[in-house]
């Protein structure tokens, strides 16, 4: 469709945009006019304004993700154990930390620290006879 403007779908408002929406709507701008000015959908503008009218705030709500099982101190301990002994297994680290976590949690913490897994050799690459 040649005359259609590209919309920014599925992106969050920044704090400034939320403030602009509230200010424009307070001064009497229509939802359509605000949406055109900020290049956002009318539905998103309406939802932001309704939240302001309902709760008196335009701040985003905190995420509803799963709470972390480990503290930052335990996260550092996981990474330190992997750095001290690169051949240590996830299960060993999990047992040493003392928190009920699954091995995938250990792997995720190590990946966040940019540590990659190191597999031991199946056999040494050269024996004395090869040399």
Write up what this structure looks like:
One of its GO terms (molecular function) is DNA binding. InterPro entries: Homeodomain-like_sf (IPR009057), Transposase_Tc1-like (IPR002492). Its main location: nucleus. This is HTH_Tnp_Tc3_2 domain-containing protein. It is found in: Nucleus. The chain is mostly helical and 131 residues long. Helix content is 50%, strand content 0%. It contains six helices and no strands. It has helices at 15-26, 31-38, 42-55, 72-84, 90-97, 103-112. The radius of gyration is 26 Å and the shape is elongated. 11% of the residues are buried. The model has no long low-confidence stretch (mean pLDDT 81).
Quickly list its features.
single chain; 131 residues; mainly alpha; 6 helices; elongated
Please describe the topology of this protein.
Blueprint: H1 15-26, H2 31-38, H3 42-55, H4 72-84, H5 90-97, H6 103-112
Question: Based on CA inertia axes, which overall geometry fits?
Answer: elongated
- SSE string: HHHHHH
Q: Which sheet architecture does the biggest sheet show?
A: none
Strand percentage: under 5%
Structural class: mainly alpha
Distance N to C terminus: 70 Å
The helix content, as a percent range, equals 40-55%
Number of strands: 0
Using only CA atoms, what is the Rg? 26 Å
Contiguous helical run count: 6
Low-confidence stretches: none
Average of pLDDT: 81
């Amino acid at each position: 469709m040649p005359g259609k403007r590209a919309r920014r779908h599925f992106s969050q408002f920044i704090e400034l945009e939320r403030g602009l929406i509230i200010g424009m709507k307070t001064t009497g701008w229509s939802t359509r006019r605000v949406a055109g000015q900020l290049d956002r959908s009318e539905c998103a503008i309406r939802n932001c304004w309704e939240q302001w009218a309902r709760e008196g705030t335009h701040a985003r709500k905190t995420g509803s993700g799963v709470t972390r099982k480990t503290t930052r101190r335990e996260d550092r301990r996981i990474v330190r154990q992997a750095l001290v002994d690169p051949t240590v297994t996830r299960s060993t680290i999990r047992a040493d930390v003392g928190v009920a976590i699954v091995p995938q949690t250990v792997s995720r913490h190590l990946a966040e620290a940019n540590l990659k897994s190191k597999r031991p050799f199946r056999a040494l690459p050269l024996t004395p006879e090869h040399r």
